């Protein structure tokens, strides 16, 4: 069981650089200004959040290879990943 917790921790930690590597180049290539990053982050995250409502409701059908006991971990990881996406929309101004 301890090995599973390390794997879970690695999944949460690896989400951070993966989200940043995916979103910041998107902002750059789509030429999103810093003032519009919050809106862009919402546009990235909200459709997935809405679709994941159904993946959580029908967890046993969508992820049949996972045990129902893993649903809280899966939900927590989704919340973590979406919060990271939304965090990329926040810009810090330097004065």
Verbal overview:
This protein has 95 residues and is mostly helical. It has one domain. It contains four helices and no strands. It has helices spanning 2-29, 37-57, 59-62, 71-88. The longest helix has 28 residues, at 2-29. The chain is globular and about 45 Å long.
Condensed summary:
This protein has 95 residues and is mostly helical. The protein is built from 4 helices and no strands.
Fold topology:
Layout (H helix, E strand, L loop, with lengths): L1 H28 L7 H21 L1 H4 L8 H18 L7
Helix pairs in contact: 1-4, 2-4
Which terms summarize this structure?
95 residues, mainly alpha, 4 helices, 75% helix, globular
- Write down the Rg: 16 Å
What is the strand tally? 0
Instruction: Enumerate the spans where pLDDT stays under 50 for 5 or more consecutive residues.
Output: none
Number of helices: 4
Encode the helix/strand succession as letters.
HHHH
In terms of DSSP E residues, the strand content is under 5%
Please describe the biggest sheet, giving its number of strands, its sense, and whether it closes into a barrel.
Answer: none
